[in-house]
């Protein structure tokens, strides 16, 4: 078997060559540098960097807050997607377009704006303060920032799946006497489950790596409100390149696992859609 | 069947149905709008309220600051270099992947998407590891008096990395979906490769191309984490708009910080507008 199937179209050599060359220089080579820098460390140095108390504290916050943010988006992302797909109301198109705002909005802008709104004297923060809820400069603020920036992933993953749900199946079930909740549990939920999980994973993957919006609202106290990406920056600023690379490698491995999970979930989603169509 | 019991319980009675549905509908819309208002609209409104809090004069005056102007210029230059390069790459990658069958194609697609899965901080750090003073090529670069990190080339490289997949991932599925028939017809009738590309393929995919370029541009102008790591934050020299926002904010110059933020917010709104208009032409996001 040859490397590629024959085609009468020209330009394979040029475009394939350029693509692989550019990909290698801009993406693969620099990433290889990271892996090599981290693995050239002495084993004991690597372990002491990656498992230092400060690093462990940062993982706890990064992963905990990201999981919480992805869970919040699992619930609200579904409700928003459901509302946009199933109900007609004034301004629906505008709301639909606004969902992508966190994609388009620079993270530094989200960061300073959220901090201002949820600070002690901010529009929303001033009402939470008497209740004893502090958002800005706590882990709650970190979670809030991560929720905002990962929200579109959850909504946009579920929306197309909800459109795919066969309304005639729902109507048939209702004609046969099934209640709304029963229809939801037995017909809608199974159809959109892969999409819900994909949205959850995408949101989590985005949240774990986030930096810009978090550093403004988190207060950045070591062990308390310091996320892992920030700890990497701290290492870099002290010219501890190897320490930074070691933490970077940990995050890189996690990103790969997330990417793999997302691909598997999407494959599952496609399979169950094919099953539903047959 | 075990399900039969639950089934019987949940049989709806006429009349009960409609008001429950109306309640659920009302609840869903209210919860959605309240969530979006608190998390999205309030911060967006804050940007403009804070920027204009000392009046429109102070707002406009904050753009007269030479460092702010330098940051705006640097952001525009970076985007002007990065977006075209990534567009050419995206077109080449889409041509190779959509028009031909070859082994390892899905691996290539995954690798192109890779930067999207990587933390911005890591995206910047990898260039520091290569070109920083203590990096692999650091001493060589210093000996030859070339600065990449804490200078314009580093900012461009980091931006190029984070925006790398945007055009390609829009074009690849679009070109795959549109198929090769017209291109093959053109070649059979004697058109050259470039002619086929410019006269047949490019018009076919133009909206997908615009879509990808607009998203690429938004990310290029707004990138914070990756650029922050490589820029060195030298005022008036290596500060892009998002980095300049951070400096002004940390100096408690809130009007200045939110004034620059308001420009980026307008850019984001413009991006969404173009995106919506492109989708309205019939080009749908898959």
Task: Give me the secondary-structure topology.
The complex is a heterodimer of chains A (278) and B (286).
Chain A: H1 12-39, H2 43-50, H3 53-86, H4 92-98, H5 101-104, H6 107-118, H7 125-128, H8 139-164, H9 167-175, H10 180-209, H11 212-218, H12 228-237, H13 241-277
Helix pairs in contact in A: 1-13, 2-13, 3-8, 3-10, 6-8, 6-11, 8-10, 8-11, 9-10, 10-13, 12-13
Chain B: H1 3-9, H2 16-51, H3 55-61, H4 66-99, H5 105-113, H6 120-131, H7 138-143, H8 152-163, H9 166-178, H10 181-188, H11 193-222, H12 225-231, H13 241-250, H14 254-280
Pick out its properties.
heterodimer; A: 278 residues; mainly alpha; MetI-like fold; 2 domains; 13 helices; 0% strand; B: 286 residues; 14 helices; globular
Under the CATH scheme, which architecture of the largest domain in chain A would be assigned?
Orthogonal Bundle
Backbone shape of chain A: globular
Give the count of structural domains of chain B.
Answer: 2
What is the helix/strand order of chain B?
HHHHHHHHHHHHHH
Specify the oligomeric state: heterodimer
Can you write the helix and strand succession of chain A as a string?
Answer: HHHHHHHHHHHHH
Q: Could you tell me the CATH topology label of the largest domain in chain B.
A: MetI-like fold
For the termini of chain A, the CA-CA separation is 34 Å
Estimate the helix proportion of chain B, in percent: over 70%
Instruction: Tell me how many strands of chain B there are.
Output: 0
In angstroms, what is the radius of gyration of chain B? 25 Å
Query: How is the CATH topology of the largest domain in chain A named?
Result: MetI-like fold
How many β-strand stretches of chain A? 0
Radius of gyration computed on alpha carbons of chain A: 23 Å
Mean pLDDT of chain A: 90
């Amino acid at each position: 078997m040859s490397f590629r199937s024959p085609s009468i179209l020209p330009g394979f050599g040029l475009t394939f060559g350029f693509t692989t060359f550019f990909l290698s220089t801009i993406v693969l080579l620099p990433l290889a540098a990271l892996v090599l820098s981290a693995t050239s460390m002495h084993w004991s140095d690597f372990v002491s960097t990656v498992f230092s108390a400060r690093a462990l504290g940062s993982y706890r916050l990064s992963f905990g807050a990201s999981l919480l943010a992805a869970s919040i988006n699992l619930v609200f992302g579904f409700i928003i997607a459901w509302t946009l797909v199933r109900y007609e109301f004034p301004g629906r198109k505008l709301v639909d377009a606004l969902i992508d705002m966190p994609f388009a909005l620079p993270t530094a802008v989200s960061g300073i704006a959220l901090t201002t709104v949820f600070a002690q004297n901010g529009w929303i923060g001033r009402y939470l303060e008497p209740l004893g809820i502090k958002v800005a400069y706590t882990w709650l603020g970190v979670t809030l920032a991560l929720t905002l920036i990962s929200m579109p992933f959850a909504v946009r993953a579920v929306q197309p799946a909800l459109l795919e749900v066969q309304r005639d199946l729902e109507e048939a079930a209702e004609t046969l006497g099934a209640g709304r909740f029963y229809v939801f549990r037995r017909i809608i939920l199974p159809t959109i489950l892969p999409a819900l999980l994909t949205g959850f994973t995408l949101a989590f993957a985005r949240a774990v790596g986030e930096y810009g919006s978090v550093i403004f609202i988190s207060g950045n106290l070591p062990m308390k409100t310091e996320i892992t990406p920030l700890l990497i920056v701290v290492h870099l600023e002290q010219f501890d390149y190897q320490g930074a690379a070691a933490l970077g490698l940990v995050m890189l491995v996690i990103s790969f696992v997330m990417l793999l999970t997302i691909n598997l979930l999407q494959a599952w989603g496609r399979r169950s859609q094919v099953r539903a169509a047959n | 069947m075990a399900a039969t019991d639950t089934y019987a319980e949940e049989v709806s009675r006429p009349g009960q149905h409609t008001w429950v549905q109306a309640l659920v509908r009302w609840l869903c819309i209210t919860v959605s709008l309240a969530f979006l208002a608190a998390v999205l609209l309030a911060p967006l409104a804050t940007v403009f309220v804070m920027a204009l809090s000392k009046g429109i004069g102070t707002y406009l005056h904050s753009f007269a600051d030479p460092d702010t102007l330098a940051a705006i210029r640097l952001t525009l230059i970076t985007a002007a270099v990065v977006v075209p390069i990534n567009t050419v790459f995206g077109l080449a990658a889409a041509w190779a992947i959509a028009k031909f069958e070859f082994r390892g194609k899905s691996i290539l697609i995954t690798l192109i998407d890779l930067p999207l899965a990587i933390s911005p901080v890591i995206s910047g750090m990898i260039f520091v590891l290569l070109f920083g003073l203590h990096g692999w090529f650091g001493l060589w670069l210093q000996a030859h008096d070339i600065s990449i990190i804490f200078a314009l080339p580093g900012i461009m490289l980091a931006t190029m990395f984070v925006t790398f997949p945007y055009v390609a991932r829009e074009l690849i599925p679009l070109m795959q979906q549109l198929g090769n028939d017209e291109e093959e017809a053109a070649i059979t009738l004697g058109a050259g490769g470039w002619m086929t590309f410019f006269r047949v393929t490019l018009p076919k995919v133009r909206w997908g191309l615009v879509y990808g370029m607009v998203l690429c541009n938004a990310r290029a102008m707004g990138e914070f984490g990756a650029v922050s790591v490589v820029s060195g934050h030298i005022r008036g020299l290596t500060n892009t708009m998002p980095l300049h926002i951070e400096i002004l904010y940390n100096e408690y110059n809130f009007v200045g910080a939110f004034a620059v933020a308001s420009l980026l917010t307008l850019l984001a709104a413009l991006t969404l507008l173009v995106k919506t208009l492109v989708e309205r032409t019939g080009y749908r996001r898959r």
